[in-house]
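Researcher: Please predict.
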Amino acid sequence: MTRRAPLILACAAVLAGCGGGGGSDQQSASDAVNSYVGAENHQNFQQVCELLSDQLRRQLGGGNCARFVDEQTSGNPHRQLKVIGVTASGDHATAQLQTTGESGTPINLKISLDRQNGKWQVTSLGGGRG
């Protein structure tokens, strides 16, 4: 797996304005995950970074998260993410995602989200096996 997979999750995966009103925890978390994945798949790194928690954004480049993510992913083949499942309980959710490795084998990825100030934000990105 290239270093792109964790950044895919970071970006994602997910962006601002998702969750927080109206629907169930499960639905609003799923909406946030789908936003994250859509932003990542369209390489909209600004939107990806907006979906990350402040703490995770600082870990991924501080002042200019979008530029950092773009630089870290350039030169790597772009691989689409797919949502496998989302589980939410209260203000915490996890999502199982999948992408394709260099050899064409599936790679499972996991992200965690927390509801912060009424919005779902990605708080951690993790790899998997594939």
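Model: The CA atoms of residues 49 and 65 lie 6 Å apart.
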